[in-house]
Fold:
Amino acid sequence: MPYSTDADLLKYQPYVFEHGVPSFTAYHTDAEADINRDIQALWIPTQSQITVPLRPSVVEGTVEGAFDATKLHPAQWMKASVYKVLAGYVLPSLAASVGGEGFVTMISFYGQLYKDELQRIFTAGVQYHDGTTYAVIYSTLNQPPQRLQR
Structure:
């Protein structure tokens, strides 16, 4: 289930539906996949409780502690999803069809908001369902490797 809907888009960019496009539903699913991929690339390596299997096609669902996107708290990712839908899908399609420099500026603006929101979530802790409730999993500080000086 996508993290955001068209109704959420209206809260952040109320004029997005004034250009003749009735729905952006498919883009929300694409943004969900992008967010899950970014979580695996940017957050999973910074914490120690959840892993990504080396060969998901073979061991998916069988590895204890393996990342499962369905265990993420959807409300935590709504704002990031809206920013991703706008910056990655809606505004580029409108810029191509309607035109205008304003869309290009907004793509950059919402793209930066998406990156900032991901960082805020990672810093505050990701809510991940542990079987009974949503636990907050924090990133651990990566210590620089210590070198032996001779």
Observations:
- The mean pLDDT is 86.
- Residues 101-124 form the longest helix (24 residues).
- The longest strand covers residues 126-129.
